[in-house]
Amino acid sequence: MLDRDALQALISHCEAQDIAFISDEIYHGIEYGKKAVTALEISDDVYVINSFSKYFSMTGWRIGWMIVPESDVRRLERLMQNLFICAPHASQIAALAALDSIGELEDNLAMYERNRALLLKELPKAGFDKIAPPDGAFYIYADVSDLTNDSVALSKQILLEAGVAVTPGVDFDPARGHKTLRFSYARSTEDIIEGVRRLKSWMDSKKAP
Ligand SMILES: Cc1ncc(COP(=O)(O)O)c(C=O)c1O
User: Fold this and answer.
1) Could you give the angle at which helices 102-126 and 189-207 cross, rounded to 10 degrees?
2) pLDDT tens-digit profile of 1-28?
3) Per-residue pLDDT tens for 92-143?
4) Pocket test residue of 1, 27, 28, 53 for ligand 1, highest count of atoms within 8 A of CB
């Protein structure tokens, strides 16, 4: 996560160069320890994108929001009316209910926290030991350069042979992602325990003489 100073430096640079600053804060609310800093704490002259897809567990419902400088509201309204008119009505009603379900959402957060701790302990035992504790969201990014140069092929092999879906790093980083994998832990703790058990036994089978 970017801390306040790093975010401030980026925003100041953009201001100096007359570049619009867009902050995608979709994972805010899913943090472990430090609280995420919003760009709006630093400047009003920024665009902040957010959604019900992550903290509110409404992926696929196609509903989110954008905070824009006052001077740009009308311009954005015109653009949005040409792109999508409005967010689906049913999704708007469901999102209102989600705002009243904070207890359930905080339970999800506690589950992510458990899953994160579990994977940070167990993934190294499976051989994925080049990892860093994530500050937020629900993914662990692993350097797998000692296993492969082709993260897509490795992901396919893990899916077919171990029965675990992992994401190749090239989805996020075309330059260095061929040596990285992303593990998601946004599932029940039982699923995560089973997933890591399969990963361990698959990695052991690769080591066997
Ligand atoms: C960083 C980030 N921004 C935006 C999105 C898109 O979210 P939505 O499903 O609300 O369009 C995602 C979804 O995976 C994401 O990870």
Assistant:
1) 10
2) 999 999 999 999 999 999 999 999 999 9
3) 999 999 999 999 999 999 999 999 999 999 999 999 999 999 999 999 999 9
4) 53
- Does the predicted model carry a pTM greater than 0.85? yes
Pocket test for ligand 1, best of 51, 52, 91, 182 (most atoms within 8 A of CB): 51
Both structure tokens of 74: 């009308």
Answer for the pair 135, 33: CB distance below 8 angstroms, yes or no.
Answer: yes
24 pocket-lining for ligand 1 (C-beta < 6 Å): yes
Distance 208 CA to ligand 1 centre (A): 40
Query: What pLDDT does residue 186 have?
Result: 97
Long-range contacts of 65-74 (CB under 8 A, 24+ apart): 67/40, 69/44, 69/45, 72/47
pLDDT band (50, 70, 90) for residue 207: confident
Domains and CATH numbers, the chain: 4-100 (3.40.640.10), 103-207 (3.90.1150.10)
- CB of 83 within 8 A of CB of 110? no
Ligand 1: distance of its center to the CA of 206 in Å?
A: 35
